[in-house]
Specification:
CATH class of the largest domain: Alpha Beta
Shape: globular
CATH architecture of the largest domain: 3-Layer(aba) Sandwich
Structural class: alpha/beta
Number of helices: 34
Strand content: 5-15%
CATH topology of the largest domain: Rossmann fold
Radius of gyration: 32 Å
Length: 738
């Protein structure tokens, strides 16, 4: 750092930020920009990118313009800088969220020289009146954060970023710093070319995050698995990513129902609500955020302990950036992704209306993502290879599922040789799919056009246990181990590397593995409703000894209360208790048919009996106990309760929801049987004769069964309708059971 006093840098670092030393290449990057040179910074999430422009901005005369893609990110960064300074005006953001008065205040602070960092959105920067404003004050330098947004090959392409170069040139000749946490060699080239930074000093840190554990799971019963995972990591902060807003809401609701402090975060929510959710997460009032990909960019929370992907991301860049939000403090960081190839197919369908070039780019990104998910090689090696970094998998230290639970390896010398020979024989002009077609002897428009069927190698890959998936795995491993190069510019054409050419001449032993197969997973698993173990078609048998003890306790309790046993707890609830072993009133509420009201009113002796039984028999309870049923119609439940409170006629209520009265009664029964009290007296007085109502109530008070058919047979089917009996049964349950 010629001409830069390193002692002065360290002094400012300590006095303003409170740090004693720089991380990695921070001091070199800062020195570079202070010398008036352009810098391109590629640094993983948690590596300290922000400091690279914050410190030089504070040290220099003028204001640094920080281009940032998200309003939430800007607010977070501005709040952080203001936290270090007594001068509120030291940092501002200028974007569409500001009112007229706030905008005037920001501009006055900038003109006066108070403001050292001004955060702007790319859209803000390109407005004519703002360009005129930027010429009114001294700009120290431009910092383009999340610079991968410039590239169509980046995972979060923003066309507005493409317009930055002429704006920067129009404002003045000042240094430019581009920063990103994810940049493949192709994206890196795109960024530098578009910003006119081909001669910029490049500072590239290793992409390896040693503390992160990578795991891919088959996409089956995902919400249940997510709840179990979060419960196992109680008290630890986490982020769960989904591709759709609907799924975000569903999972957040499921977590909340199961006693986990969680909240949704997506663009469909009000901006104030999103900001409040973000603040609650930072203040640890929430354990989990369930979000679309918008959440997390620039969020300075170092102790996120897990990141879960309900859906596989659209690109490995996206995956890397999102998983990178875990363990930024160097502590524990678990990254779990649920994967099914059907999700890749869905994402491809979403692209069908885009221009052909965009579709090709998108498909290549998805192909890389599915390759990562399905590979049985070291995931860390695969990921780092994607970003142009070599890695010895022996250093993974079992920090990915494939290294922790390795698949059986086989001698792959002849298979690898066949793949490399095929790539060479087709003149290194074709993609993975075309190579597989040649090996398998499968005709396509490409093989016909190039007359591949005339090659000697045509069909040489056809063997009993070697299908398309097998050859796909061999080619993927050939890439990761450096025998094959993928030409991104030509949409994925495969070429031989120097190592590959040498192997063709002198083959040697190579151990390879078969890929994971996720084709039979439940990509569309109906996990809107989470069903506890006892309702899964009897897949888990109940503890018959405990079940008998619970039945006897129910009988005694019912006798003491002067009620039929079924009013207190029905047999399916007892059966579920004998599977799940609830030990607290809160856990009892998670049993089907037991709401908080019933649990509080009748539950104490039942959980005491179960607790004593579990201790006596040293029983290990299933994790499924933690999963509580989430009714997909929670909105309908609220609607029904609110309208009953308003004394709305049941027939009108059913009509407004396009339901029959019978279906509406079924919904009300579900609500009441779970322990919620409702008052239908207003409806009964209007529609059911008082004497008939009393007769039905008396029947249920003395009957040992709540079966409707039995009740009608006993009462007389000519005198009592099914709906009348059901309405009075609801009243009986509500009055005496809840």
């Amino acid at each position: 750092m010629v001409g830069i006093d390193k002692k002065e840098l360290l002094k400012t670092l300590k006095s303003f930020f409170g740090f004693n030393a720089f991380k990695g290449q921070q001091d070199q990057i800062i020195g570079n920009i202070l010398q008036g040179k352009d810098a391109f910074v590629i640094m993983p999430t948690g590596g300290g990118k922000s400091l690279c422009y914050q410190l030089p901005a504070i040290m220099q005369e003028g204001t640094a313009i920080i281009v940032s893609p998200l309003i939430a990110l800007m607010k977070n960064q501005v709040d952080a800088i203001r936290g270090f300074s007594q001068e509120q005006g030291i940092a501002h953001f200028l974007n569409s969220s500001l009112g007229k008065a706030d905008t005037i205040q920001v501009k006055n602070d900038v003109r006066s020289g108070k403001t050292k960092l001004l955060y702007v959105a790319p859209e803000t920067l390109t407005k004519e009146d703002n360009i005129a404003f930027f010429k009114e004050f001294k700009i120290s330098f431009f910092a383009i954060d999340e610079a991968h947004c410039i590239s169509e090959w980046g995972h979060d392409f923003r066309p507005e970023y493409r317009k930055l170069k002429p704006i920067i040139e129009a404002v003045g000749n000042v240094p430019v710093m581009a920063l990103t946490a994810t940049a493949t060699p192709k994206v890196q080239q795109d960024i530098q070319k578009n910003l006119g930074m081909l001669k910029a000093e490049v500072f590239k840190s290793s992409f390896n995050r040693e503390n992160l554990y990578y795991e891919i799971r088959p996409k089956q019963q995902v919400i249940k698995e997510v709840i179990k995972f979060v419960k196992q990591h109680a008290g630890k902060s986490g982020i769960i990513y989904c591709l759709s807003r609907k799924k975000v809401e569903e999972i957040a609701e499921a977590l909340k129902v199961n006693g986990i402090k969680a909240a949704p975060y997506h663009a469909g929510l009000d901006a104030k609500e999103r900001a409040r959710t973000q603040d609650r997460f930072l203040m640890e009032e929430l354990q989990v955020i369930v979000a679309t990909i918008a959440f997390g960019m620039g969020i300075d929370k170092p102790d996120v302990r897990f990141v879960i992907h309900h859906d596989i991301p659209k690109s490995l860049e996206g995956y890397y950036q999102e998983t990178g939000r875990a363990g930024r403090d160097g502590g524990e960081g678990k990254c779990v992704t649920f994967y099914s190839y059907d999700d890749i197919v869905k994402l491809e369908k979403f692209m069908k209306d885009k221009p052909v070039s965009e579709q090709e780019i998108g498909k290549q990104m998805l192909a890389e993502t599915s390759s990562f998910a399905e590979t049985s090689t070291c995931r860390r090696k695969f990921l780092l290879h994607y970003f142009g970094e070599s890695f010895d998998e022996r250093h993974c230290n079992s920090m990915c599922d494939n290294c922790r639970h390795p698949r059986k390896k086989f001698e792959g010398k002849s298979d690898l040789h066949l793949v490399l020979k095929c790539i060479k024989d087709v003149k290194e002009k074709h993609k993975l799919k075309d190579i597989i077609n040649v090996l398998m002897g499968q005709s396509s428009s490409v093989t016909k056009s190039y007359k591949h069927h005339e090659l000697k190698i045509w069909g040489d890959g056809v063997e009993a246990d070697k299908d398309e998936r097998f050859w796909q795995a061999i080619i993927r491993q050939a890439q990761v181990y450096g025998y094959v190069i993928k030409d991104i510019e030509r949409y994925g054409v495969l070429k031989l590397s120097k190592l590959g050419l040498e192997f063709l001449k002198n083959p040697y032993s190579v151990l390879l593995t078969r890929d994971h197969n996720y084709t039979n997973t439940d990509a569309d698993d109906d996990d809107d409703d989470i069903i506890t173990a006892s309702r899964q078609s009897g897949t888990i048998s109940s503890d018959q000894q405990l079940f008998g003890m619970l039945k006897e306790l129910l009988r005694k309790t019912a006798k003491a209360k002067g009620l039929p046993p079924y009013v207190i707890f029905q047999e399916p609830s007892l059966e579920e208790m004998s599977i799940q072993y609830p030990l607290t009133i809160d856990e009892l509420t998670k049993i089907g048919g037991v709401g908080s009201g019933k649990a509080a009113k009748y539950g104490k002796p039942f959980v005491e009996l179960i607790k004593a039984y579990v201790e006596e028999h040293d029983i290990e309870r299933p994790m499924d106990m933690v999963i509580r049923s989430v009714i997909n119609k929670s909105g309908l439940k609220v609607f029904i309760i609110q309208n009953i409170d308003r004394k709305v006629n049941l027939n009108d209520m059913a009509k407004s929801k396009n339901m029959s009265l019978s279906d509406l009664l079924t919904e009300i029964e579900t609500i009441v049987f779970s322990g919620t009290k409702v008052n239908l007296d207003y409806y009964i007085k209007q529609h059911i004769d008082a004497e008939k109502a009393e007769e039905i109530l008396n029947y249920f008070k003395t009957s040992t069964s709540d079966d409707i058919t039995e009740a009608i047979n006993e009462l007389g089917e000519n005198d009592f309708s099914e709906d009348e009996v059901r309405v009075l049964r609801i009243k009986f349950y509500s009055d005496f059971g809840n």
